Amino acid sequence: MRNKKPQLIKHLADPANDEFLLEHSPFFRLTQAESLYQKRMAENLKAVGMDIPRWRILMILHEKSPSTISEIAERALMNLSTMTRVAQRLERDGLVKLASNQQDARSTDVHITPEGDAAVEKIRAVASRTFRRATEDFSSADLERLNLLLTRLSQALL
To answer: Residue 99 CA to chain centroid, in angstroms?
Structure first.
């Protein structure tokens, strides 16, 4: 597909085109990559007693704790009720502490605990191995461009 002119490639990637094939679709490719990434991460996280939803929440809290359940759900692209259940599991495990938000009693703040911080260190190592495997043939410029393109794509879909 590299030798084809850019407009032809874009045309072939459009599902309305009679010549459309899934392999032409960037969304199909994204889904493939994401599914394989999720599979590898799930396998690797399971080895350290973690799962993907809890990993995502802990990584978000590692960057900003406390955060409200709503903030985390929005950032993690997670359903609010699912987010609440996962946060409650994390609290039972001693990895976070839930508390009423000082400014809005309807909101719940989620604070990462020292045990949560320790879990983050374990899961960062697992995530790093998965990342390095997936990107070993990518340059820093490749990753920068990929992130830029994915950001543009996400913003176009908002």
So the answer is: 25
